Automatic annotation (TrEMBL):
Pfam families: Steroid_dh (PF02544). Residues 1-59 form the Ubiquitin-like domain. Belongs to the steroid 5-alpha reductase family. The chain crosses the membrane at residues 232-252, 258-277. Keywords: Lipid biosynthesis, Lipid metabolism, Membrane, NADP, Oxidoreductase, Transmembrane, Transmembrane helix. It is found in: Endoplasmic reticulum membrane. It is a multi-pass membrane protein. This is 3-oxo-5-alpha-steroid 4-dehydrogenase-domain-containing protein. One of its GO terms (biological process) is very long-chain fatty acid biosynthetic process. One of its GO terms (molecular function) is oxidoreductase activity, acting on the CH-CH group of donors.
Amino acid sequence: MGSKPGKQGFSVEVPATASVADLKSAIALKKKHLYPSRQRLSLVSESSKRLTDETKLTDISNGLLKDGLEFKLKDLGPQISWTTVFLVEYAGPLLIHPLFFYCPKLWYGKNFEHSALQKYVFAFVMLHFLKRELETLFVHRFSHATMPWFNIVKNSGHYHILSGVLLAFDIYRPKYSATSPYILNTIRNDEQFLWICTGIWLYAELSNLHTHLKVRSLRPPGSTKRAIPYGYGFNLVSLPNYFFEIIAWTTISVMTNSAAAWLFTIVATGQMALWAIKKHKNYKKEFGKEYPRARKAMIPFLL
């Protein structure tokens, strides 16, 4: 069967039983730089609708394959895997925070005893990003295998600078040390307060993990299929993982009242809100009347 990608001046031959993924592979053989993940295919008649790799060409044409199909081909540019991007961006804080925590003289000009608050926050940050790395390797199943390569610069900047350098520099400085007036005889040095914060943070992190595992269970390996999630967290919002992450970072911000911690929490909340609203709209569009209408996008009853 002849398939012609848009008005690119070439055609490729694929079997009548081929899928969009097969067509992309055939295009890649003819145009070496256009490897499959770099391609976006849509019908010329429906140029705004992206065709998924699993789509069969016979389904597109309703079984009528006479003179071939005409597609619009868009070059998405150099790509990099989602897994690589996530591993690199989360690795930043895992490397940066120990440098500030264990080498205070290098950054602040002197050694000092860390307070219990600093030790708790250090543990929280390290465990959070270690969890994110493990989820990337063993939990997440991505709808798309790759993203534009520049995203690794943009995403890494967010994590390496805001939750890496700025957060570490601010929280591990002498102001928060064991002998600082900001800590001594205050709630920040109260063991009960620290344990309460630990309980809230741990609840948020475990709840976040639970939602990731729930979404994973709805997507078979090697598939981009989506289903409506129900149960804990999902009864109120479409993206409870974002909500629980906000709770975790807000806990750290309240514990320290650090300007850097609040900055990261606010920026991260804004970014997650944009993602949540977009994904919430996609859920409603994809599942229509089946999707629970009372759900909010990210924050119960509000957003």
